[in-house]
Amino acid sequence: xxxxxxxxxxxxxxxxxxxxxxxxxxxxxxxxxxxxxxxxxxxxxxxxxxxxxxxxxxxxxxxxxxxxxxxxxxxxxxxxxxxxxxxxxxxxxxxxxxxxxxxxxx
Length: 106
Prior knowledge:
It is a single chain. The chain is mainly alpha-helical. It is built from three helices and no strands.
């Protein structure tokens, strides 16, 4: 089903707009949870020890994959979350601008 925000009835546009904004809010909340979970994991020393222990068992005494956490990995996570939140804000801005254009034309 294709919805035209400029010509369709408000009875069609309003529920779809609310649905899209609800999905974007849920995506934002999920990103917050995901960032908190992974940042705690990356900064945890016990997770780092388990990762090294697992590698030493698997690779006969060598840790080929390196340590679990580190400043680069945490910074990479923050960049990924920032880009994802930027996409959420971009989608919301495009949707709200299209609704505002419709309101200004009527």
